[in-house]
Amino acid sequence: MVQRQLRGRGIHDENVLAVMAELPRELFVPAGVLSHAYMDDALPIASGQTISQPYMVARMTELLDLRAGMRVLEVGTGSGYGAAVLGRLGCSVISVERHPELADTARARLAALGLADAVRIVVGDGSLGWPAEAPFDAIVVTAGAPRVPAALPAQLADGGRLVVPVGMRARQELTLVIRAGGTFETHDCGGCVFVPLIGEGGFAEPAGESAQGRRRRWFGRLLL
Ligand code: SAH
User: Fold this and answer.
1) pLDDT digit string (tens) for 108-133?
2) Domain of 25, in residue numbers
3) Probe ligand 1: pick from 97, 102, 200, max atoms within 8 Å of CB?
4) pTM strictly above 0.90
5) Which residue has the least CA distance to atom 14 on ligand 1?
6) Average pLDDT over residues 156-161
7) Beta partners for residue 203, in sequence order
8) Number of separate domains in the chain
């Protein structure tokens, strides 16, 4: 995986390559797709979500230009694989997930890998960032947003880097934002495909998922 999918495609951050070479990705995928754990693809996990393609995890992590000791916010814990990579790089990580059951599973996996202190997993709407713990040296969003979520650049420390897929639900551009004092430089870093970021700074919740949606449909029926 590391030689062919990562180094072979231009990933050159040796720390990222070393961490991904030794972190067992099979611990993060469901039993049904275990034989695909090292394939060049995103894979389905619980709650209709995905564990990102290894190349994409490596690319995003490399773009963050991390060093040990940095404070990192991840939006979209999913399987916990990306968070584990960040933790193994020596960063102090807060990872936000909107599905509590995914957060629970990921927390148990990270604890089993000895990463419970390095990575704190919290449940909430990460499209708003995590203001209580800001500023961050780096922020990575692992779900696609319609635009750079407005709250996030302001939660970067000076010199901090934000990586976020931006575009339509079906396809996005990997976007890097670098903070220099009060200014924010934006770079396009290639096409990508992620599950949608759902929340105030992202896409609307799919109809039928929220309690509010259920209430609306219920009242709708009463009015008919
Ligand atoms: N980094 C993950 C990728 C998970 S896919 C991994 O390595 O497995 C993206 C995740 O973002 C999904 O689990 C989804 O539930 C979550 N997500 C979507 N919108 C979110 C939001 N507003 N706040 C927090 N998590 C969100």
Assistant:
1) 999 999 999 999 999 999 999 999 99
2) 2-222
3) 97
4) yes
5) 76
6) 98
7) 198
8) 1
